[in-house]
Design goal:
This is Transcobalamin-like C-terminal domain-containing protein. By secondary structure, the chain is of the alpha+beta class. The protein has helices at about 5-40, 70-75; strands spanning about 45-50, 55-65, 80-85, 90-95, 100, 105-110, 115-120, 135-140.
Length: about 150
């Protein structure tokens, strides 16, 4: 490459390639960061069942924000009346007009692939949902504890 015009052209091509690779790196990094943020602030889908005395109503693939609680999810598919007890959580009094009465209360369960139905360990407003989870509100007789599995 003794030709000066060829050397200038090679330098220009090299500079253009460097600029293109720099732009590509900035764009790729930005796209990756957006995907990560969307994953953190994204949506989840859960399956919520409401089991009354004689029927079960399912709300499958209910879309919620990531970080939503079971209480929020339930309120998104049903009319919920509850009492908040500071420091302990919310106690559900009724779902869709069916009130706790006598020894019958609304109890919630989650599905575990290895153990089957598992009694909810905390108040519904304290339980953070995970994508793909299946939960069931069961209006059941609680005169014996723990109540029988659904």
């Amino acid at each position: 490459m003794d030709n000066p015009s060829m050397m200038r052209m090679s330098e220009r091509v090299l500079k253009a390639l460097v600029v293109l690779f720099f732009i590509w790196g900035v764009v790729a990094t930005s796209l990756y960061a957006n995907e990560v943020m969307r994953g953190q602030e994204g949506e989840i889908r859960v399956n919520i069942g409401i089991r009354y005395d004689n029927r079960t109503e399912w709300h499958n693939s209910t879309v919620l924000r990531k970080g939503a609680t079971l209480l929020e999810a339930t309120k998104s598919v049903a009319s919920v009346n509850y009492t908040e007890y500071p420091g302990m959580g919310c106690f559900v009094n009724s779902i869709n007009g069916v009130r706790n009465e006598g020894s019958k209360y609304w109890i919630w369960w989650y599905w575990d692939r290895s153990m089957g139905w598992v009694l909810g360990p905390v108040a519904a407003d304290k339980y953070l949902l995970s994508d793909g989870e299946t939960l069931l509100w069961f209006y059941e007789d609680t005169s014996s504890y723990p109540p029988p599995k659904p």
